[in-house]
Design a protein that fits this description.
This protein is α/β, with parallel strands linked by helices and 345 residues long. Helix content is 28%, strand content 27%.
Length: 345
């Protein structure tokens, strides 16, 4: 491998911080702001036990308010950094930087963010990576604008050159491109040499067109955690069972089956007649811990046990994420990890 060749690090590798954006009255959270703020406070409290967090705020008033809420909950503010930049909403998994590591520093891939295929206004979110770079948040880094719609939640890597993604999402964004072309482009931009596609799996209430981070995630180079459905009467059963079979047929770089960790199925969450996407696969890996979305469901405890087996060297920390799925996402969707060294200490 070339000395300065880029590498897409896995989420479990050391991090300098986690990036989030604070919800406020001008975001889509306005109608349930109090509920979602409690989730964000719990999130910041959990992250700062292990590492710093960077909180993007829309203006000085939002920063003052967010700092007050965090201080009143005894957050370690020495591990909280605020930066001011405009944003449409708070789904930073999809609008934040996709970071490759080089020997000489970092390569920030700034793909187009189109509001999940034009479903929502996203002009300010699409400009977020540029804004954060201009603010000097990232060190030893170069930004590359890529004229291609891709969200961070649509891809997952093992850090060793294997990418996991879903055909439904990428085909929806780029209907004129075949699988070989998409594989070649993803492999080139993301420094991968294997692209594994899932043809099955979806969640009702998910408007991302089947992001992989709601369905299946690498836990190690030889392990995948995935959302299963053991209720044959549920509308998801056939698709998620077929996805489990696809995962069982995949092979590691060494030609071995992956160790698979099926996650339990939460009971349906219905809001105003609409089913919400309560996926346990939308967890966040940080330094020393895995933050797990919890939904106030009996399956929460079993999900924590599965993740403890998949990540035996990390603490499993459940966080209340039922407010998040009202807006069709969960814990991983509102966060973006920043690799170690990307943000100055």
């Amino acid at each position: 491998m070339l000395e300065n060749a880029p590498r897409f690090p896995a989420e479990w590798e050391p991090q300098s911080a986690v990036l989030i954006a604070w919800p406020h009255a001008e975001t889509d959270w306005a109608d349930r702001l109090g509920e979602v703020e409690e989730t964000y406070i719990a999130l910041v409290a959990a992250i700062t036990r292990f590492q710093p967090v960077v909180v993007v705020v829309a203006d000085a008033d939002v920063e003052t308010y967010a700092e007050m809420r965090l201080r009143s909950n005894r957050i370690d503010m020495d591990r909280v950094r605020f930066v001011e930049a405009p944003y449409d909403d708070t789904w930073l998994r999809d609008s934040g930087p996709i970071t490759l590591r080089r020997a000489s520093g970092f390569h920030l891939l700034d793909f187009r963010f189109t509001g999940w295929g034009g479903k929502f206004d996203a002009a300010r979110d699409d400009a977020l990576v540029s804004a954060l770079q201009d603010l000097g948040l990232f060190v030893r880094s170069q930004r590359q604008v890529v004229d291609f719609a891709l969200e961070g939640g649509a891809i997952d890597t093992d850090g060793q050159g294997t990418l996991l993604t879903t055909w439904q999402c990428l085909h929806e964004r780029h209907p004129g491109l075949d699988r070989d072309t998409l594989s070649a482009r993803l492999a080139d931009w993301l420094a991968q040499d294997r692209v594994l596609w899932l043809d099955h799996g979806y969640l009702e209430g998910d408007d991302t067109d089947a992001h992989v981070d709601t369905l299946a995630r690498f836990a190690a180079v030889d392990a995948i955690v995935y959302q299963a459905c053991d209720d044959p009467t549920d509308s998801h059963h056939a698709e998620l069972t077929a996805m489990g079979e696809e995962l069982a047929a995949l092979r590691t770089r060494d030609g071995q089956p992956y160790r698979l960790f099926p996650l339990p199925w939460a009971r349906p969450v219905i809001d105003d007649g609409r089913r919400l996407a309560a996926s346990y696969a939308n967890f966040l890996i940080i330094n020393g811990a895995v933050l797990m979305p919890a939904y106030g469901d009996p399956a929460d405890a079993e999900a924590a046990e599965v993740l403890a087996r998949a990540f035996p060297d990390r603490e499993i920390v459940p966080l209340p994420c039922r407010p998040l799925i009202w807006q069709n996402g969960s814990l991983h969707c509102i966060t973006m990890q920043l690799p170690d060294g990307l943000v100055a200490a």
